[in-house]
Amino acid sequence: MANDLIGLATLFWLVAGLIALAGRGVVLGRGLAGLGCLAGMIAAILTLPGASPPVALPVFRIADEGSGFTLSPAALWLFGFGLAPAMLAAWLGSPGRGGRFWLFGLSMSLIGALGVFGVTQGAAFLVAWEVMSLGGAAMILGERLAEGAGSRALFMLGLLEVGAVALLAAVLVLGTASGSLGFAGFAGAWRGAALYGPAIAGGLLLVGFGAKLGLLPFYEWFPGAYGAGSGATGAVLSGVVLNAAFFGLARGLLVWLPGGVDEGFGIALCAIGVISAILTTLYAFQQEDWRALLAFSSAENASVAVTALGASLLFEAGHLPLFAGLAFTVALLHLAAHALAKGALFLAADGVFAATGGYAIRQDGVLRANTPLFGMGALFAAMSLAAMPPQAGFVSEWFMFQTVFQGFHLPGLAERLTLVLTGAGLALTAAIAFATFVKLFGVGLQGRAADGGARLPARHQSAVGALGLAVLALAVGMPVWLGALARVWPAHDAIDAAAHMTDGWILVPLSAGFAFISPSKLVIVMPLLALVPVAAILLCRRRPARRVPVWYGGSPRLDRRNATTALTFSNSLRTFYSFVYRPRAETGVETSLSPYFVKHLRFEHDVAPIFGPALFGPVVRLVHGLARRGRVLQSGSLNLYLGIIGLLLVAILVVALF
């Protein structure tokens, strides 16, 4: 049944891609793409906690080897939750002008991601990885929503190709050691091998998958690429594609290299994850564009999941498989909550674009002008990403902190100290993320407009409401959903950490004596607590409310000029962390007749990237220099072309002789 549904989903995506190439029936193609996502979600629901039955793919023979296909429980979990926002994004479509190109890119991304999750052969995996990456670029380029979209997509592809080359090298190293490109032989090839071999393969896997996850320094392509696309594209990239990249990294480190990566690699992974999370959430807080802010937030959440994976490696190296399974399960919970919440806010951004014509975070009166369903959905999603109870993001981050607090079980001082510092870094990340989504919701949605407010399309309101309610349902039903994660730990099939994470309707980090929470009970208690201020208001009804203007520096009136902007909200943190941001501000004045008659006043501000000038800038200058020197090849001189052909013939003759 599962494979039938997966095959049906693949067929729908292929037909949708063909429709996009034909250029007709794009609405039908979007409907089919969404139905394919729905079929994939149903397959995940019906199959978990098991895996899909393995099948052979004899048609796709690469490197003289056939490939199999199966979706593990972890793959079904991540793919299923990523498909939920992708389904709604497909049905809503992109607000950009190139609808058919976007649909084609969407189909490529979904088919490629399915291959990343399911194929069992190295060469087929690399092909699927490239298809998924090119699909994301096609979506961005097809929308034409921003100037310079081509250069942004090219920068994204350039960094992703660095990762692709690293993955190619890793697969070659693993394939050479095992004598086959099949994943089944990768693990056994390293038993008894020297440590440097698995360490090299692990480092290559980290670079390859980290380029897609946004680990430092690769996160710098996120705001440009996401900012050139729509919210629908962002929902797919931050849900399906991001989850696929994490699954690939986890499978590589836990299945392909079992025991090959030691505690030193786990320490490095925790350090990279925490530093990436801190930097990306700091940059997210400074953004004034919905897509750029949510893009940095996606990199931050991916980094938190990678940190949990690093903790899992530390516990595994310390011979604590139950704690290792706990850390890995927490990473899956975190990415599931992230996919739903981030999809809701990305689709809310598209609604804002449809209503206002832009993606700027400003006070447009969005919340008051739209339905309560939209307001609840956006609020639940923002609360989850800000780790506020009782939402799913709060549950996953609470589990994350409880996991690193278990570091005292580790045998080595370095490992214990690593998890202590990891907890401190995650606390800073959570605090800044909280402020980030207070800013997004408070300024971008709750802010009051001078007119009646921006009215979003009804379909976007419904989609945001549905995904927001799904975030709450994931949190409230967590004691039930954890049953679907009984067999997700890939290193030891017999380890069922999820069974030790519940005590009735209470969630516990393996033991109720250590800590516990209950989101299921919080949703009952919190509305009851709300009765206290309601009762106070009712008791004070005899005293009329006194309404006076808010004090604002002595200003006699409040208008749009006094409204809090996204820049004002985040300026204090920009000043405090100026050593990280290195803020830049430029002011230009255009006058008429004399300096006293100002026609235009221009103000631009930005924060300086950390890695771009040092790492990417020299490469760009090198390419430009080579291009300038290579222009002579396009001079049109026939003598030059004949001379080059002659040199090539001489070179061929020399090679043939020797």
UniProtKB/TrEMBL annotation:
The keyword Membrane applies. GO terms for molecular function: NADH dehydrogenase (ubiquinone) activity; oxidoreductase activity. GO terms for cellular component: plasma membrane. InterPro entries: ComplexI-like_HydComp, NADH_UbQ_OxRdtase, ND/Mrp_TM. The keyword Transmembrane applies. GO terms for biological process: ATP synthesis coupled electron transport. Its main location: membrane. Coiled coil: none annotated. It is found in: Cell membrane; Membrane. Residues 124-407 form the NADH:quinone oxidoreductase/Mrp antiporter transmembrane domain. It is a multi-pass membrane protein. Keywords: Cell membrane, Membrane, Oxidoreductase, Transmembrane, Transmembrane helix. PANTHER family: FORMATE HYDROGENLYASE SUBUNIT 3-RELATED, HYDROGENASE-4 COMPONENT F. This is Putative NADH dehydrogenase. It comes from Acidiphilium multivorum (strain DSM 11245 / JCM 8867 / NBRC 100883 / AIU 301). The lineage of its organism: Bacteria, Pseudomonadati, Pseudomonadota, Alphaproteobacteria, Acetobacterales.
